[in-house]
Amino acid sequence: MALKYFEKLSNNYLELLNDEKDFNIAINVGESPNTKKFRAHSAILKCRSLYFCNELTELTNIDKDKNHIITLDLKNVSIQQFEVLIKYIYGGIVLLEEHDASFIFELMLVTYEFLFDELAKQLQDHLIEKEAHWLHLNFNRVYLKSFQNNKLQNLQEWCNNIIIKNHINIFDSEEFFTLQENALASLISRDDLQMEEIKIWNYVIKWGIAKNPGLPSELEDWSYENFIALKTTLQNCLPHIRYFQMSGIDIINNVQPYQQIFEKNLWKDIMKKYMTNEPISSIILPPRSILKPALPTRIADQFSKVINVTEIALCWAVDILPDFMSFIFKTIIPTIIIAIATFLLPTTIVTILIIIVTIAIFLLNRKMQKTNIHIFDIIALILIIIVAIEPFSSK
């Protein structure tokens, strides 16, 4: 049986932060005039932090002051952020409820810089699970920042899902040309990206050209070196474009002008596919999947019974109106004709006419595969019976 006293151990180590006697590291955090000095212990920093272990190893031969104190300057972190980090180093505690989502997001970025991968991963998951609303409101900032660090895989995936599911057109936004290459490659690699392949190609080319401002404005003026520069810029994006899902005319008009950025074998296979339909050796990526728009689930409001007038009108138009029009043409008009006929024709002829109309209505219903009896059908039957009985009752 193991007796564990982690909480007490954590508290004891946190108390060392207030010890002004035994520390041997002084850490100056922030930039003037907003700076603060933190006292720490090299043994704890080296044990708990790979970043500080590397820093202190490089400073082993540095001159110490007369009290044998090593001084570190950290300008890439705020005082508030480092207060959280130093408590994490010493006590293994981070109190997220004391901070808002914006602070936690920036803290997550800093923790990766200080190589606290475990803490950064937990902060990343916390933002996705608990602070999704804030992430939505600050989507552009989150999207651009998340792809500046390849360790933010979960957040990158979350951002791509938001773009796909909410049909966010990042390609026409002001931020498009500021995207990192890995962000663009990650997005166009998605099978569920809802965009025609030729449009994806055109956007990728525009992005690549924007990253090379020295390229001539007219393609006819490009040199071989210009194409190589574009190819180098797009080297991680080009493999994700589905060339074999484009039409032949799109290949000729939009892709062929840039054929020099393709590997020879790939371009040869593209030509085979569209010109000769011969077997090819290149990998053919599958077509992108088309997402079916899903209507949101209706939530019943148990406190409100208000019916929208528009919904009533729509219900009438979709459900009742067709039956009503059928009632007019199949019943009212024939009934009027029969009523007039009772005054102008003999009873026998009127009876035959009623039978013919009834059979016609029955056959029409069968043809329309109408099996349910509607209120209009009942009214029609009553009217026909009344009109049919009237000649006999009057005589």
UniProtKB/TrEMBL annotation:
It holds the Pfam family BTB. SUPFAM superfamilies: POZ domain. InterPro entries: BACK, BTB/POZ_dom, BTB_POZ_domain_cont_9, SKP1/BTB/POZ_sf. Keywords: Membrane, Transmembrane, Transmembrane helix. GO terms for cellular component: cytoplasm. It comes from the Eukaryota. This is BTB domain-containing protein. It comes from Gigaspora rosea.
